[in-house]
Amino acid sequence: MSLATDLRNTLRDKLQQRRVQMLADLRDESISDEGTLAVRSHRGETDDEAVVESMDAVEIASTARDATELAAIDSALQRLDTPDFGICIDCGAEIEPARLLAEPTVLRCTACQQRFEHQHHTPGGARL
Ligand SMILES: [Zn+2]
């Protein structure tokens, strides 16, 4: 059974809104004047090299997380019109609509996600 059309439309709206938001955030934080993805360095804000390094590390991690989420949103938008969307990639069961509404980029049903996270010890609760 395929996903109900109104659920699909709701999810598309949510994904597109989030995508616009992510792009705006990335533009503010991480897109250089040349339009390439760059991590803003805190060099120049303090003379303490150790502080600069740790602040830059946080910036890099945050940009990488945003880029990963953006990729997940793009792939969810591409899958949205295929019969695979809303189907757990591990067991083939339908993912609960409430779960999709809470997190449209999820790829697995609750049970498989828990098993996956247990097996992979996903740091920081990243849900992909
Ligand atoms: Zn599953």
Automatic annotation (TrEMBL):
<keyword id="KW-0479">Metal-binding</keyword>
<feature type="domain" description="Zinc finger DksA/TraR C4-type">
    <location>
        <begin position="84"/>
        <end position="118"/>
    </location>
</feature>
<keyword id="KW-0863">Zinc-finger</keyword>
<protein>
    <submittedName>
        <fullName>Prokaryotic DksA/TraR C4 type</fullName>
    </submittedName>
</protein>
<feature type="zinc finger region" description="dksA C4-type">
    <location>
        <begin position="88"/>
        <end position="112"/>
    </location>
</feature>
<dbReference type="GO" id="GO:0008270">
    <property type="term" value="F:zinc ion binding"/>
</dbReference>
<dbReference type="InterPro" id="IPR000962">
    <property type="entry name" value="Znf_DskA_TraR"/>
</dbReference>
<dbReference type="Pfam" id="PF01258">
    <property type="entry name" value="zf-dskA_traR"/>
</dbReference>
<dbReference type="InterPro" id="IPR037187">
    <property type="entry name" value="DnaK_N"/>
</dbReference>
<keyword id="KW-0862">Zinc</keyword>
